[in-house]
Each structure stands twice: as C-alpha cells, then as structure tokens.
Amino acid sequence: MKNRLREFLRKKDGGFPIIFVILIFVGCMVAVGFTDLLVRNYTMDEVQSKMDVAGISSLQSGVNTEKLRVQEFVVDKALVKNNYMTMMRQTMQNSDKIKDYKFYGEPKVDVINSKFGIGNSSQNRPQAIIDSTMIIVVDSSQVFDLIPGAYDRYYNSKDGQYFDVKYNGKNEDGKVELSVRSVSRLVYR
Amino acid sequence: MTYKNHFLYKKLKCKVKDKKGAMALEIVIGIFTFIIVLCFLVDLLMLSWKFAVISSTNSYVARTAGIQGGILATAPDGFPGGNTAYISTNEMRNKLNDNFKSAGIESGKYSVKVNGKTVSSGASTGEVDYRQPVTTEINVTYKWDLMSNFVPGDLTQTMTSTRSSMSEFKYRYDTWVGE
C-alpha cells in the first residue's frame, strides 16, 4: 500500500493538465475579482455624480429669486429637500447595476453667512449647503462578497468632526452594500 | 494482424509516450494564458477610463442643460451673456465629440439625450422652463477590444448613464409674475 502511494506521488502523468486547470482557475478568479472592482468603483462614482448634480440643482431651485433682487438670501429648505429627493429617486430608477438604495437619514440643508471654505475672503458670504448620504446595494459575485460591511467613517469639514454611517451588510449573498456621501454648496459672492 | 501490431499504431504510441517538447508546450500554453489575462486587465483599464469620461461628461451636460434650461441652437432672449456665454447644440456636439474621442469612443458609438431629445448639431432639445425637470441620458456602445481577439462571439455591450436636474433659466422673463 505504502509503495503504491509512493509510486502514485512520484508518477508525473497528468501533471501538465493540473497546471493548466490551475492557470485557468486563477485567470477566472482574477477576471471576476477585477470586474467586481470595476463595477463597484463605477457605480459609486456614478451615484456620487448624480447626487452632486441633483444637489446643486435643488439648492438653486430653493433660492427665492424675488428676495435675491433686494439682496436677501433666502432658501426654502423644505423645497430643496423635496426637489433633491425627487430628482434622486427619478435618476436611481434608471440604473440597472443598483439593486436597491435608500437615503441614510434625511438630506441636511444648511444656510449660512460665513467665510467657510471660500479662501482668503475678508467678508462673509451667503451659502447654502446640502449634505446627504445614501446606501446602495450593488450586484457582485458571491466569491468576493466576503466581508459584511458595517459602517463607513466620514469627515464633516464644516463641523470638523468624524461621523459613522452604519448599515447591515451581509456577506456571500452576491450583493454589496456601499455608502456614498455627497456635499454640494451654493455660494453667492 | 491486429491493430496493435500495425506499424502506425506503434509509431503513434511511441509519440504519445514521448515526453520531448512537453516543457515547450507548457510554456506556450502558460504564456498564452498570461497574454489573455493581461489583455483582460488592459481592456478593464481602458473601460474604467471610458466609464469615468462618460460619467463626467454626463454631469457636464446635465449642469449645462440645467443652467440654460435645455440646449438650443442659439441663445434664447434674455440669457445672461447672450451667445458668448451660451453653449449651443453645435458647440455641445463638438465638445462631446472631443471628450469621447479622447476616451476612444467614436462619434457613431454614442448618443446624448436631454429630456428624450437627441443633442445634434443645429437642432434643439426644447425649452425647459424654470424649475422644470431636466433628464440627461448618455448611451455608449463599447467593446472589449483586446479580449474580442480571443473570445468568440459579439463582445459589444451598451452602458447608460443618467442625471436628473432642474432648469434654472426663466424663459420670457418680462412676462413672469414671480414666485
């Protein structure tokens, strides 16, 4: 028995097909892994761009133009939020890569008169800011869906503080949960 | 005489058992697999660049169409800055061509629509009045250029990118009663 096993191990017949199969397997894994990476990155970029465009557009739609004529900066926050969410819902429906999405809390709209983020300005400037985060679910391969996401940490430059976006990710279900944050700002100079 | 005694059978058996050149064969197949994987990665890199260009171009189209209230052949009356500041369909078409050309996307391989109407030279996508929705859509047909040399069949795929925004321009401002 021992001799037969030794003989089997020493035998080099079939060694070549094994290498070939391993090469094909590694090649397939590399292909699947990198395709997943491409889809994830592209979907995140795409969603963030949608949020940026909808954000700035909704801020502009909320500015009271009549008041602006008498140099008063008045922004209808409720209208901004409503327009933003309507635009996002409309544009997210058209995406075939995204299986599900939800807003992480309501978008936060701030209206400030400050020097924040406008360089070496000596004067305060009226600004409107919309800050929102979304959780999206993207199709992925089960093989590389190994780590269940739990939270992502973001930095709020206005408050100077970090905050966590928490979600319940599941692994090996072929769906990857990703958080996307966007901040858009309108400044009147 | 059985086939086992035939000289051709003996010759073939000898060839099959002969291990000369096996190493070369392994190397050739190994290199071939490596080339396929390399081509796949290069294609992937090219596609990620194309996708990034499509994404940023669509954001630009959406913002422009939002600010201008659509894209017309000439600037509408009362547009701040007139024709100089306005991006007409002709100019937009040229910009799109330049952008997509830099990403290796030929002019016949994409279509850009604003509220369902195609952006084409000299035409108009229609007027979209203040606070009315503007939806832009870019469809691009792309191909796995290098992988299509190894994989049989049609490797052509289509990707769609959409953006939603709102018109920021008020047409016929002189007759506007206000908000």
Give your account of this protein's structure.
The complex is a heterodimer of chains A (189) and B (179). Chain A is an alpha+beta fold and 189 residues long. Chain A has one domain (14-187). Helix content of chain A is 41%, strand content 28%. Chain A has helices spanning 2-10, 15-62, 65-69, 77-92, and strands spanning 98-103, 108-114, 125-139, 151-156, 161-166, 175-187. In chain A, the strands form two sheets. In chain A, strands 1, 2, 3 and 6 form a four-stranded antiparallel β-sheet that branches. In chain A, strand 4 and strand 5 (161-166) form a beta hairpin. In chain A, helix 2 (15-62) packs antiparallel against helix 4 (77-92). The radius of gyration of chain A is 26 Å and the shape is elongated. The relative contact order of chain A is 0.16. With 179 residues, chain B is α+β, with helices and mostly antiparallel strands. Chain B has one domain (46-175). In chain B, 42% of the residues lie in helices and 16% in strands. In chain B, strands 2-1-3-4 form a four-stranded antiparallel β-sheet, covered by helices on one side. In chain B, helix 2 runs antiparallel to helix 4 (89-102). Chain B is rod-shaped, with a radius of gyration of 29 Å.
Walk me through the topology.
The complex is a heterodimer of chains A (189) and B (179).
Chain A: H1 2-10, H2 15-62, H3 65-69, H4 77-92, E1 98-103, E2 108-114, E3 125-139, E4 151-156, E5 161-166, E6 175-187
Helix pairs in contact in A: 2-4
Chain B: H1 7-17, H2 22-68, H3 82-85, H4 89-102, E1 110-114, E2 117-118, E3 133-143, E4 156-166
Helix pairs in contact in B: 2-4
Radius of gyration of chain B: 29 Å
Helix content of chain B: 40-55%
What is the distance, rounded to the nearest whole angstrom, between the alpha carbons of the first and last residues of chain B?
105 Å
Give the fraction of residues assigned to helices of chain A: 40-55%
Task: State the major sheet of chain A.
Answer: 4 strands, antiparallel
What is the N-to-C succession of helices and strands of chain A?
HHHHEEEEEE
Our estimate of the beta-strand percent of chain B is 15-25%
**Cross-sheet strand order for the largest sheet of chain B:** 2-1-3-4
Envelope shape of chain B:
rod-shaped
> Would you tell me the structural class of the helices and strands of chain A?
alpha+beta
Overall pLDDT score of chain B: 89
Q: Number of helical runs of chain A?
A: 4
What is the total tally of β strands of chain B? Answer: 4
Shape of chain A: elongated
- Please count the beta strands of chain A (DSSP E, at least 2 residues each): 6
The number of domains of chain B: 1
Largest sheet report of chain B = 4 strands, antiparallel
Largest interface, counted by CB within 8 Å of the partner chain's CB: A-B, 36 and 36 residues
Q: What low-confidence regions of chain B span 5 or more consecutive residues with pLDDT below 50?
A: none
